[in-house]
């Protein structure tokens, strides 16, 4: 079964050929693994491209602001995923947090939440420059209990010292974390308690 949709102009593969050929655009009932890349792209990429153009994307609801990151002076970028309730964390407080640390490309490094069982072992941290990495300190200040933030922490305010917390106790995750200390890290932090 073959359905002819329309005719499009496809530029030639050979860059020395100056003319364009009129090629019929065909969608067949063949399985996708038998379609060429060009056929798959021509059938499906058009919808993707149209949905990303501002004229064809969904309009913003009046009064709704787009989701934005806040950037601090030291280069830390963060967003509030969940606002939380109650008192705000301040410098000098001891806090109990859950966190997930990833490289900026999404590669997992360490977490206080076991990814298989779901069990968590929260970290207790003193919000202070001498105890924890400066970027994480800046992210924690102002958070409310129950709040969750996602932050991109540049290396100059990250693990500049191997003794700064949070750091895994196990050798493998510790080695992985410290080997990536000179690149930006993504932290997802949930504030559980202020002690």
TrEMBL record:
Alphabetical list of PROSITE patterns matching this protein: FKBP_PPIASE (PS50059)
PPIase FKBP-type domain mapped to chain residues: 92-195
Top-level lineage group: Eukaryota
Catalytic activity: [protein]-peptidylproline (omega=180) = [protein]-peptidylproline (omega=0)
Keywords: Isomerase, Rotamase
Example GO molecular function: peptidyl-prolyl cis-trans isomerase activity
UniProt cross-references to SUPFAM superfamilies, sorted A to Z: FKBP-like
Pfam families: FKBP_C
Entry EC number(s): 5.2.1.8
Protein name: peptidylprolyl isomerase
